[in-house]
Description:
By secondary structure, the first copy, chain A, is an all-alpha fold. Chain A is 80% helix and 0% strand. Chain A has one domain. Chain A contains ten helices and no strands. In chain A, α1 (2-25) crosses α4 (65-80) and α5 runs antiparallel to α6. The first copy, chain A, is globular and about 50 Å long.
Amino acid sequence: MHELIYWLDLFGIVVFALSGALMAGRYQLDPFGVVVLAAVTAIGGGTIRDVILGAYPVAWVANPLYLTVILVTAVLTIIFVRQPKRIPKRFLLIADAFGLALFAVLGTQKALTLGSPISVAIVMGAITGVAGGMIRDVLCNVIPMILRQEIYATAALLGGSLLVLFQYLDFNENTATLLAISGALALRLAAIYWQVSLPAFEIVEKEQSLSKKKRNKYK
Amino acid sequence: MHELIYWLDLFGIVVFALSGALMAGRYQLDPFGVVVLAAVTAIGGGTIRDVILGAYPVAWVANPLYLTVILVTAVLTIIFVRQPKRIPKRFLLIADAFGLALFAVLGTQKALTLGSPISVAIVMGAITGVAGGMIRDVLCNVIPMILRQEIYATAALLGGSLLVLFQYLDFNENTATLLAISGALALRLAAIYWQVSLPAFEIVEKEQSLSKKKRNKYK
Amino acid sequence: MHELIYWLDLFGIVVFALSGALMAGRYQLDPFGVVVLAAVTAIGGGTIRDVILGAYPVAWVANPLYLTVILVTAVLTIIFVRQPKRIPKRFLLIADAFGLALFAVLGTQKALTLGSPISVAIVMGAITGVAGGMIRDVLCNVIPMILRQEIYATAALLGGSLLVLFQYLDFNENTATLLAISGALALRLAAIYWQVSLPAFEIVEKEQSLSKKKRNKYK
């Protein structure tokens, strides 16, 4: 039972590390920089969750396997993805969506196990799912996906809520976990599929034209 | 006595959640995204304070009322503020000023209660007052107010210092708290009132022209 | 023995506070804003390390001398550096390099003392060395050095690894510490010396031209 959660957690580490390494590739970092960005993305969310809950030791401090998995993922990305700029942006979005769905549900689960109230646990799950990617984007000076992509926070909150619902309905824990992850993932992938050409640059342009207007006003 | 502090704390949550929701409105987020940005702004500072002090459980984890208040504030903002871009920017600044003054003083108070030295407690208060808004601005890829607005950190540090002073002068605790908050708020509002048209864009322009110069130099 | 580490730690605080104050000078902050940016840069990395390790109380909360040192450094910087924009950028880079090397090694050491596995301790050291400057850069809306400067994360990871190696070879602890710091510092300074004119603006330009391309595509 707990074994499934453990493997899902490591899979979340892999996909977020991959998204961090792909993003790093766009900046032509030296290999160690790629590893660091992959690591920050992969363990950022879980670390913030554990620190806020006071759940010491933090997962990756207790179990160095996490760092090994990140290292291997980053190195494989460097080896097999020679030109990260040619990888379609959608690939990064999809890796991020898997990490989001997995960590939102697993984060909610951990918070519930530690005795958090339901609303707190769902928010905790959202933090776990969203924070690693947020740090990745902020470090790269990109507006975080949660502000650019529709149905991002929504998908994370849905994942945690579904888990709570399925547990309330007395589903088997493995089933509840997998169904909740699938729900969040389906919603987020649907959003990517039908809206990927929508918002990202529009916002930036609006802000630029806004600041141009203001600049004229103040000049 | 402690009741006053509790209500002031919740009021700080409301005004910071409001400032986060208003900022979110400028980015046309879906409703859940608005709630998330409101939450990060409202509980960011207190969370960082509690985590650094090791004061577990963190306030909003122990008491789900915080999340409810944020949710209600964000939803009301969405309902009543149909076009956040038309809300004068000053409104966001004023909500932020209230949150800054309240949390700077209450954060200092909590750190003192937990036995921190005076200088540490004042810095802890400043972190509580400043960090939530900082995270809000960084996520929106805006230079944080602390770097754009004059007399921002100054107001936060004044709030904590006044509290220490009034406690040293043996004022009644409620009086000391309210006076310290008023002092910090008055200073910050005065800065907004007389300087609001000043610095923000100047910095950005300078940096742009700076990087243009450098770019030419390197070309 | 421990005395050396204590002084090296305070020296790291000074150089990072200096780098924060110099960066603040470019934004013409009021004096308190300069102090805050200096403080965030100087204690950011160590705070994150202690919080993730659950090593309470956090160093600067236990010992207010840290804040005093930061305050004095920031005030002296304000007094003696009248025009921070005329200070060559290399000066900020060098101060940052000293802080990076010192904190990467001392952070690894603290994590080892607290019983972390070797790989975790080295990563912990890198976080200590890198995070303060990262926060400084993110707050100033600048892409962090770790993403702009080559051999940045590499130098931090080298420092921690050298410490582990020298301890394994049974070097005297003071010798191991100083040699590891020198190794990391030498690597980073070499990178600054031979590559300082290289990457920073290239990335920004690439991104701009990239987004121009994309904008055209979506228009």
